[in-house]
């Protein structure tokens, strides 16, 4: 019995410990069907897991964890399920992860390199997206669906 208890304790404690290689304080703005937020937050990256923690007045109000699933305070869901509930159903599955990592979206469609980053303009029957990434910020705006996602360095 004590071996089962010890094994369970080790299993559950290993799942709860997260060692992030990188933690950055950011100014985050999100306007989507389920989230309206603009304040400070932490962006953490362990190489395998991304975590966006949102604060209001110093109190954590939401954590969005991204790996093979996306987890929020409402539970874990597939990336396409997250897009359906929080962003837009037509977005590619890795859109949130790519925005958090400052990577291209839509497989680099309409990519234009800039001096310190890139821009993308994606327009079709479902979306009208302007996506800009530079060394200090990420800007995503879908004019057709009213979605805004911005991440800025705090020292800007």
Question: TL;DR?
Answer:
This protein has 156 residues and is of the alpha+beta class. It has 3 helices and 11 strands; from the N terminus they run αββββββααβββββ.
Name the features.
about 160 residues
Q: How would you characterize the overall build of this protein?
A:
- The protein has an eleven-stranded antiparallel beta sheet.
- It is of the alpha+beta class.
- The chain has one domain.
- The longest helix has 15 residues, at 2-16.
- The model is unreliable at 5-17 (pLDDT under 50).
- Strand 4 (59-66) and strand 5 (70-72) form a beta hairpin.
- It is built from three helices and eleven strands; from the N terminus they run αββββββααβββββ.
- The N and C termini lie far apart (56 Å).
Radius of gyration over all CA atoms, rounded: 17 Å
- The secondary-structure class comes to alpha+beta
Q: What is the helical fraction, as a range of percent? A: 10-25%
State the domain count. 1
* Total beta strand runs: 11
Which spans have pLDDT < 50 for at least 5 consecutive residues? Answer: 5-17
Write down the secondary-structure element order: HEEEEEEHHEEEEE
Distance between the termini: 56 Å
Neighbour order of strands in the largest sheet? 6-5-4-3-2-1-11-10-9-8-7
Major β-sheet, in short? Answer: 11 strands, antiparallel
**How does the overall form come out from the CA principal axes?**
globular
What fraction of the residues are assigned to beta strands by DSSP?
over 45%
